[in-house]
Specification:
The chain is an alpha/beta fold. The protein is built from 12 helices and 8 strands. The strands form 2 sheets. A 4-stranded parallel sheet has the order 2-1-3-4, sandwiched between helices. Helix 5 packs parallel to helix 6, helix 9 crosses helix 12 and helix 10 crosses helix 11. The longest helix is centred in the C-terminal third of the chain and has 25 residues. The protein starts with a helix and ends with a helix.
Length: about 350
């Protein structure tokens, strides 16, 4: 009972401590301040009645619950690169509440001053992609004054490329977003993919880079759109029992044909949720596990019969599925190039 009373009292004490924590420039977030407070005196007075093991556990739980970070993303372009890097890195940490602040199209020292005024109100980690040396220096100088870490996420890659290629980077902001041939290629790929969704326009399938086959709800459309955004003309064709595939599928020579499959249990769950969302009955062969399993088996046999590579999307994200497809595409291209060189 004494320990229980001490625990409750401790919770109340923490509630009193949090609002009174002063903001200090060297601390990157309210969470960091809270962590610093406990770190300086990890065993608060009321914890004396707890065993050492329980005290440490309680201290650890508090840190896990309170992990919160202000993340400032400063870019001289759209900020997409920073957002992708931040997302990839944050995924490696559990229990983190990252409050992201986007500062795109920052290209002058005056803009930096306005941004820094905001950052000083919500101090945290600053990630940036700025190519103008004067703008970079101003940002880093102001962050140094506030005691905030400022990291240029592209510098290591640019330095390595510069050394490997023997030339300096051009230092042009947003160069990857220029409306060049690659940009228009992506737009063309997107138009093609939308026109060839769900088995449409089968007569021009051979113009595709990639053709995806699979039973209903195996992520064919979202994967196709993702690949189109990468610049690949992607068509998808559903595999439906008792309905033959378009004859053009079996005549394809140019595109890479890939079969998508998944587990019956997972597919039933997805289809059932789909029907519920549409307010339709779930009493149909579309969601019966034995029928779904038969569909998947039929599709797999079809893929194997024609030598098409198969990707199981059960535990894959769209990005992971697309990466596997592009790996097959690269292997196929490499094999074709090898055959061409040997002839």
């Amino acid at each position: 009972m004494l320990r229980l009373v001490a625990f409750v009292k401790g919770i109340r004490d923490i509630g009193k401590v949090i609002p009174n924590i002063p903001r200090k420039p060297e601390i990157s977030s309210p969470c960091g301040q809270f962590g610093d407070k406990l770190g300086a005196n990890p065993r608060l007075p009321w914890m004396g009645v707890l065993s050492p093991v329980r005290a440490v556990r309680f201290h650890t739980v508090i840190h896990r619950v309170m992990t919160r970070l202000h993340l400032h993303l400063v870019s001289d372009s759209t900020g997409e690169t920073l957002e992708s890097v931040a997302k990839a890195c944050l995924s490696q940490f559990e229990g983190v509440q990252a409050v992201r602040h986007f500062w795109p199209m920052i290209r002058s020292e005056r803009q930096i001053e306005r941004v820094m005024e905001e950052i000083s109100q919500r101090p945290g980690l600053v990630l940036f992609t700025l190519v103008n040396p004067m703008v970079r220096d101003r940002l880093q100088g102001r962050c140094l004054q506030l005691g905030l870490p400022a990291i240029s996420v592209l510098d290591p890659v640019l330095q390595a490329l510069s050394q490997s290629l023997g030339q300096s980077a051009r230092g042009m902001p947003g160069r990857q977003h220029l409306m060049d041939a690659a940009y228009f290629s992506r737009i063309e790929a997107m138009h093609f993919t939308m026109a060839h969704d769900d088995g449409q326009s089968a007569e021009t399938l051979d113009e595709a880079d990639i053709v995806l086959l699979g039973v209903s709800r195996t992520s064919k459309t979202p994967t196709s759109i993702y690949l189109a955004n990468r610049g690949y003309k992607t068509a998808n064709v559903p595999v439906v029992p008792q309905i033959p595939l378009p004859p053009q599928v079996f005549q394809l020579r140019r595109p890479l044909v890939v079969g998508l499959t998944t587990s019956a249990e997972r597919l039933v769950q997805i289809r059932r949720n789909r029907l519920l969302t549409l307010n339709q009955s779930t009493d149909s062969d579309y969601v019966r596990e034995d029928e779904v399993a038969a569909e998947i088996t039929h599709a797999r046999r079809l893929f194997t019969q024609h030598g098409w590579p198969v990707i199981d999307v059960t535990r894959r994200s769209i990005e992971e599925t697309a990466a596997a497809i592009l790996n097959y595409l690269a292997q196929r291209q490499e094999a074709l190039n090898g055959s061409g060189n040997g002839s």
